[in-house]
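Dear colleague,

Thank you for sharing your sequence with our group. We've completed the structure prediction you requested, and as agreed, I am returning the results in plain text so they can be pasted directly into your records. Please verify that the sequence below matches your submission; if there's any discrepancy, let me know and we will rerun it promptly.
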Amino acid sequence: YRRLHAKETRLSAFNQTEVKAMLGSYTKVLFVRDPFHRLITTFLQGMGISSSFSSFVQEVLDSGMHNGSVAWKPLVSLCRPCLIQYDYVVMFGFLREELGHLLRQAGLPAGSLPPELTDSQVQWTYRWLSEQMFSELSAQQKKQLSHFYRWDLAAFPFSSSFLSD
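Please find the predicted structure tokens below.
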């Protein structure tokens, strides 16, 4: 697209005709991850100033949707899946299978994936971490988090998420 190489131009900077033409010329891939796992990762990477996970979650809830970090904002507010028709939605936890399919669709050999790309151990680790960290939260925080991420939970199949209970 003619303005493709503009440095860090946001999609909102284009008019509707340009956006439609631009999006129509790309294969659109959206990578999604359980919002609770995103919170855990953000906390473990030290992106919050809190000493406990519960305090960090309270910071997230207090910041709200509009003032929050991209690291924990709901995906629906960042990626607009209701407005942009993505060609592929790749779920964390199924990366090996889904990326293999995506590579084949793009005409590339699926065998070009690195052999160490395994999700099963990562999924087990996140399940254990989720149990530990979810138990630190108050009933009110759990309810507020479920409400905060309600659109992500409705838009994507995070059936095993602690927040969807």
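Summary note from our side: The first strand starts at residue 29 and ends at 32.

Kind regards,
the structure core
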